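Predict structure. Chain length: 108.
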Amino acid sequence: MKRLILALTALLVALPAMAGTPVNINTADANALAQSLDGVGLAKAQAIIAWREANGDFDSADQLTSVKGIGQSLVDRNRESILVDGAKPAKKSRPARPAKAANANADD
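Prediction complete.
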């Protein structure tokens, strides 16, 4: 009985670690996406790949919301595990800043 409890405890501790494995969404296959991203099963993983094949590589993690069935909360939950360039987790994209007026009073 103690062994069973110990084995179940070890399994419960290991499950979150498996879901958070970093994965490059521009190169991973459907199985890797489904195993690495929390809330992404095989169907959503295949939808990610179909979007990537139709539209090209993802520029940011937030672009995943363009895939049917993937919302911002799913992206936010997995942000630390989503890689777009293979080197570092994808950061939240920032809106572009408006350009500053180039010395509006230059003629004065």
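Summary: The longest helix spans residues 2-19.
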